[in-house]
Amino acid sequence: xxxxxxxxxxxxxxxxxxxxxxxxxxxxxxxxxxxxxxxxxxxxxxxxxxxxxxxxxxxxxxxxxxxxxxxxxxxxxxxxxxxxxxxxxxxxxxxxxxxxxxxxxxxxxxxxxxxxxxxxxxxxxxxxxxxxxxxxxxxxxxxxxxxxxxxxxxxxxxxxxxxxxxxxxxxxxxxxxxxxxxxxxxxxxxxxxxxxxxxxxxxxxxxxxxxxxxx
Amino acid sequence: xxxxxxxxxxxxxxxxxxxxxxxxxxxxxxxxxxxxxxxxxxxxxxxxxxxxxxxxxxxxxxxxxxxxxxxxxxxxxxxxxxxxxxxxxxxxxxxxxxxxxxxxxxxxxxxxxxxxxxxxxxxxxxxxxxxxxxxxxxxxxxxxxxxxxxxxxxxxxxxxxxxxxxxxxxxxxxxxxxxxxxxxxxxxxxxxxxxxxxxxxxxxxxxxxxxxxxx
Amino acid sequence: xxxxxxxxxxxxxxxxxxxxxxxxxxxxxxxxxxxxxxxxxxxxxxxxxxxxxxxxxxxxxxxxxxxxxxxxxxxxxxxxxxxxxxxxxxxxxxxxxxxxxxxxxxxxxxxxxxxxxxxxxxxxxxxxxxxxxxxxxxxxxxxxxxxxxxxxxxxxxxxxxxxxxxxxxxxxxxxxxxxxxxxxxxxxxxxxxxxxxxxxxxxxxxxxxxxxxxx
Amino acid sequence: xxxxxxxxxxxxxxxxxxxxxxxxxxxxxxxxxxxxxxxxxxxxxxxxxxxxxxxxxxxxxxxxxxxxxxxxxxxxxxxxxxxxxxxxxxxxxxxxxxxxxxxxxxxxxxxxxxxxxxxxxxxxxxxxxxxxxxxxxxxxxxxxxxxxxxxxxxxxxxxxxxxxxxxxxxxxxxxxxxxxxxxxxxxxxxxxxxxxxxxxxxxxxxxxxxxxxxx
DNA sequence: TATGAATGAGCATTCATTCAT
DNA sequence: TATGAATGAATGCTCATTCAT
Lengths: 215, 215, 215, 215
Description:
The structure is a homotetramer of 215-residue chains.
Chain A: H1 2-7, H2 14-36, H3 39-46, H4 50-57, H5 60-83, H6 89-106, H7 108-119, H8 124-151, H9 155-181, H10 187-207
Chain A binds a DNA duplex (21 and 21 nucleotides) through residues 10-14, 17, 38-40, 48-52, 54-55, 59-60.
């Protein structure tokens, strides 16, 4: 009983409580979305009274922002950790995509909060998610440019790289969403499919093998 | 007084009223999102009292669903009209993409409601949007299969077509979103970029030019 | 029963509801003070649901402001009605004071809200009450100046009139407060006492019969 | 570490802590009023944790009462010290008024708490402030009676003295309030104005020079 | 048909107050 | 003695929804 008391003990240090609260909030926001989530449910799930939430993490909006930031940070770290290294650009992109799908597979709630909820909520949240997205696009863009330089960059390719990067990031997001409803596929396979779609197509573009309406 | 009554548009036939209401609702939902949109504002913008809205179109959720359905129908018609004809699969996809971007460019509000708001709202709405998405994916999938059959379908390609279609649809959506922030690009150019990314990459896949991690 | 239904009937025109609400609010604010008064109690006393209060009269602060303004207006009208006429200044002041005490005697709650609650509430309310007070002071000041001119105005009197007016208004207010705890005195008597204190003293001052510490 | 402990003022004797707390409370109550003052701010300003406040001075209401009592005591002592002595009644009143205005001028916060906040708060506080007020009125009343006896007391004067005293006290309070907005006047001048208004008027009343409506 | 009038029910937020250490 | 941690209880306010006319 002593141990039990300790386990479920009140009077925990602030940092611990903050993590409990954030964990609960991510769960609740991912379940109901920002608006339909109630602070009451967050407090209940966290096992912490509402005043503590307000004392430690501020308003509902602040709390949501803190969730977004924490999860976005985790995702970005996972992806950059995958990209890191001395590999060729294609391998880097491959590792990044694989890391991305692995993260989504392992943190469903995080992904739901980040992608589905934050996107629909105007203002500071879209901004923060948008900023993360821009970092991702910049990362991919850098890889594409490096790769293209190796292969020689055509004029058409140069103009398109950023949009290509945006499309690639977007398709990865969408594929992740699609995956939530088709869970019987491995993350590795998803990543390789996307690589083929994107990398080979981009490679053709760079190589001058361009598709045009008239062709 | 008769004239006055006419001026203030009373006693209109039901169909007209319904259109007024739906138009207003699309506008309001696209401006504030589902939750922050108030029935009061819809009724004000529509110039119709709230009880009429409830009488004609049901609850707020029903109303939102009706918006989604109407706009989705319009979009889908636009795209299929583009695809129609005796063209080769690639030209059909091209026309479909062009039609899609043209529609988004010309109906910003519709697109916002469809993509941004509906995605974040669980339950029946995701379902309806998801159904439309599935129709789009099926359409693209059909084109890919036809094209692949022409070129001879590898095992890898066969397994991948649906996911490829999903990724392509998703990247089109994302590119459309991206476009909202980069409006100085023509819809035609967007469509051709995406064709290159998707079609050429898919073509390589079909042709057996496969990217693999070890390569 | 028809009649009963009519009496307590819902669906009353807006103006009537607004008066009901204001009446209830004055009562509740005078009972508990601004902060301890709850909108729930106002709505209960008024026999009107809270949303109506907010729809018709705005926030709690707005509602309080509306009370203040209405009661202040009533009081000021009563006093100026008393002052009106072609009487000599002293008679005018007398009538004003008598009207003031009569009003306070007949509208206890109004007076409590005006004097006790509003004074302690910073910002716009003190301002509004303060403005009414300034109007009252100006009114008295005018009477004092007219009277002094008739009797010849000494230098000391000239410098003091405004402060005298302020002191007189203040002592009337305080006497009214004191009266709330000593209700067995007629308003007429109160007014005449104050006349003697103020008018005769001021008259002496004007006449040069000055009290000084050294005398 | 011992020194550090001393620096942060821990382990002080109870009396010192209580004074710290009361000083802070007077400041905070005068700044925000009773309701808008938070115990958190009091504890912060006092540099003492909230549980100490509750241990030493009880609830918020108790704390407020303690403030009122202490400040009222100070004010009353200042005034009685002014009145003390073998002077004639008028000089005593004069000294009392001068002492009153001096106190208000030198202890703005105390005055605000006493007059503005306490007045608006029903129950025990009005009672305590009222008690102090009654002591002041009794003091003044005594002076008036002594003075009147010297000059021969008319029937009208006898009945009026207490109300006169109340009015005088009230006008002093109101003039003090008015002074807060007109600070460029000396306390001495205020006192002398009030003496003239009150004393001379009262003197006339005593002397039988009565103002009546018909005169 | 059409609407002004009305409300039930819920939610974010705050604060005086008290344990457990 | 002294406090960081924790909460019960209340309150202002909003909004989808529905009568009575």
